[in-house]
Amino acid sequence: xxxxxxxxxxxxxxxxxxxxxxxxxxxxxxxxxxxxxxxxxxxxxxxxxxxxxxxxxxxxxxxxxxxxxxxxxxxxxxxxxxxxxxxxxxxxxxxxxxxxxxxxxxxxxxxxxxxxxxxxxxxxxxxxxxxxxxxxxxxxxxxxxxxxxxxxxxxxxxxxxxxxxxxxxxxxxxxxxxxxxxxxxxxxxxxxxxxxxxxxxxxxxxxxxxxxxxxxxxxxxxxxxxxxxxxxxxxxxxxxxxxxxxxxxxxxxxxxxxxxxxxxxxxxxxxxxxxxxxxxxxxxxxxxxxxxxxxxxxxxxxxxxxxxxxxxxxxxxxxxxxxxxxxxxxxxxxxxxxxxxxxxxxxxxxxxxxxxxxxxxxxxxxxxxxxxxxxxxxxxxxxxxxxxxxxxxxxxxxxxxxxxxxxxxxxxxxxxxxxxxxxxxxxxxxxxxxxxxxxxxxxxxxxxxxxxxxxxxxxxxxxxxxxxxxxxxxxxxxxxxxxxxxxxxxxxxxxxxxxxxxxxxxxxxx
Length: 510
Description:
Blueprint: E1 2-8, H1 12-21, E2 28-32, H2 46-51, E3 61-62, E4 68-69, E5 99-101, E6 104-106, H3 113-126, E7 129-130, H4 155-166, E8 172-173, E9 176-177, H5 209-217, E10 223-227, E11 229-236, E12 243-250, E13 253-264, H6 268-277, E14 302-309, E15 322-324, E16 340-343, H7 349-352, H8 362-370, E17 372-379, E18 388-392, E19 395-399, H9 405-422, E20 427-431, E21 474-476, H10 491-508
Helix pairs in contact: 1-5, 1-10, 3-10
């Protein structure tokens, strides 16, 4: 059967693109290698989610030494948005420019912030983002206020907020994609539970690509979704300038589908893998790889979690409400960018057990959790052609060497001092529970950059509209197109860009 559009993947990019195109009248096929994530009690079971890694079901990858590791990725309708923390940030205006870091230069984007601003606004409305303008000192221009009021701080976090303000910092409300109505809690879909960040939402109150985009689109008769469909190869025509068909493994059988427009939205790692696996005579080194950039410039952010312990009991339930960007572009002592700081969801003893020695008594972990305030730190890693995705005997192999660490490490040290000075926290501990595994490379939730876009086909894979330079009907709408990573969660930028590309495709298909 011939389709007008085939979308491969249903995460932040693919799901949003589908929603943008659903009323186009075009015949759309969506291929998802996973299934719908089951709605079950285990959604909110910390042992199942964090210790047993129930919803990270990706195959094992190998590192640069050939050692296997399990990445923090899930193949589901909605992709990794099913378990993300729903912190939905715009990149800063300066992130689109060339920025000097202590470790090198973050390159300029071919688009600027103003080119995406209206799409960011549409994205925030689509994903129910709560927030408040005018508090974050690095906040970019916003043509409208956030569509929903900010998620309020609980008393312990409000005290922390006030202490930070009194010391000259600028804490602000974390922009969150949740279906929360604090003025009418009885009829609010979101219940402000302690099983949000890193968990699937049992009551479907977290704004993910499945609930907000895919399921509403399936009501349209022009949309067909096939789950359990792993795309194994993109097959070009004889001249190699267009995709002729898609090879798909479905119930252990090979199937082929045809579409006028093909869109890869498999995630930055797997879209690069698909391009590499689709090599042929016309594209001997992988599809659209004349530049040699397919799979290269892989970025995933520098990430770390810290556990701040206080003598005071922290009875906060929904903790992920506050962020700080005072060090984002540096400070008076260090003029290079350092990074972004935000609260995590509240820890419990079963989360802490993933990092604790096996002999650690449960009651000690319980006490630690009761007195903890949990933080997530993000720093920008710079694009490096040596940081790349390759195929090694049917294994996905990731080569990654950390870079630009000076600013991030400085921010970590400064923030620990700030927390101790605030009087709220007495002890600071490092932990890696939100990466999920001891291997840092496994934390790939912020993956981007492997099929960068640009105006020059010699240095980029995609053009300004995220179409491959070399194939007329092949597009990409996941985080692959990023030129740099910034230091905030990439999801909203992926969503906004998917809306932009969707509107471009509607014009093209008129």
